[in-house]
Each structure stands twice: as C-alpha cells, then as structure tokens.
Amino acid sequence: MSMCEWERDELLDELRRRRWTFHYFGRRNDDLDAIAAVRRRGDWVTVIVLRAEDRAFAYLTFAPPEVDPLAADHIAWHYIGSAVWTLRAALCLSADLQPSTVYSRPPDLTLTELDRRPLSIRPPLVEPSSAGEELKRTEAGSTTVRPRSWGEGRRVMGGAEGQEQPERNS
C-alpha cells in the first residue's frame, strides 16, 4: 500500500469516526463508480464525492432535511482535486462556518441521476456504551472500499494489519 493509499484510508476512517453518512454508487457486489460522504450540521451539509484516486470534489450547501444535498443547485464553498487533498480540505472546514453567500454549483461537481444508481447508504454505526455515555462509533464496522477506477475494486480490511478478510454483506 502506497503512502497516498494509506493516508486516504486514514482520512476515510476519520470521516467514519466523525459519523459521516456514506453513499456507495454502483452494484453492491461489483466495483463501485463513486463514493459520497455526507455530513449534516443543521441545514448546512458538507458533501465529498470520490470518483478516482486523482478525481474528487467536495462542496458545502444549504439543504434542509427535505432536500437531497447530492442534487443541490447552489453551494457556498467547493474544492476539486485528488481524493486525499479533497478529503483534507473538507475535514478542515470549521464546524461553526455560516457562509453569507451562495453561488450556482459548477458542472464539474455533479453526480447525475444515472451516476447515482444503484445506491447503497450506510449511516454511521453506533452502539450504546455500557456506562450510559453518549452513543459511540463501532470500530468493528470499518471497511475500505474503492471506486472501480482505483484499480483493485472492493476490499475489506480487518484482522491482522493489511490482511484481507471476506466482505460482509449487510
């Protein structure tokens, strides 16, 4: 695994720790076409779309609960770059960011309806703690998946470091 792959996987794990919702586009047992991660803070939503190792984008949009943030027409911030740099940029956005202006979403930041089918959504995994604390993320649910254009297809990592495990279908 190269340094970029390691860093990308670490950044994806950070999204999971921060309880982002993941959208996987493509056939469940085939290679994926894209992965989107979505984080809602009130009516502001941050969206990250990974298409390939060198092709990803992120944006911030105003989207009340009844609006699909993946189909937003107007955005307040965006970033286009490699998967690693896009993940870094989105993770650096301030939690209390309240943009004052919005603009039309550039065409480069689009997932068409055709791109978005079939779709699997995986909300953040949580489990109640035995001490009655707040809900916490279940680390055992962590998976590594890659869009088809990244070459190796879907892989699930677990067990000993770097040892591949069979994929769990849930």
Structure description:
- There is one protein chain.
- By secondary structure, this protein is an alpha+beta fold.
- The protein has one domain (3-165).
- It has helices spanning 3-17, 83-91, and strands at residues 21-25, 34-41, 44-52, 55-62, 74-75, 77-81, 103-104, 119-122, 126-127, 136-137, 156-157, 164-165.
- The strands form 4 sheets. The chain has a 6-stranded antiparallel sheet with strand order 6-4-3-2-1-8, with helices on one face. Strands 5-7 form a two-stranded antiparallel ribbon. A two-stranded antiparallel ribbon has the order 9-10.
- Strand 3 (44-52) and strand 4 (55-62) form a beta hairpin.
- The longest helix is centred in the first third of the chain and has 15 residues, at 3-17.
- The radius of gyration is 16 Å and the shape is globular.
- It starts with a helix and ends in a 5-residue tail after the last strand.
- Residues 121-170 are annotated as: Disordered.
Secondary-structure element pattern, one letter each: HEEEEEEHEEEEEE
Q: Helical proportion?
A: 10-25%
Rg calc: 16 Å
SSE class: alpha+beta
Number of helices: 2
Task: Briefly summarize what is shown.
This protein has helices at 3-17, 83-91, and strands at 21-25, 34-41, 44-52, 55-62, 74-75, 77-81, 103-104, 119-122, 126-127, 136-137, 156-157, 164-165. By secondary structure, the chain is of the alpha+beta class. Residues 121-170 are annotated as: Disordered.
Features:
170 residues; disordered C terminus; single chain; two-stranded antiparallel sheet; 30% strand; 2 helices
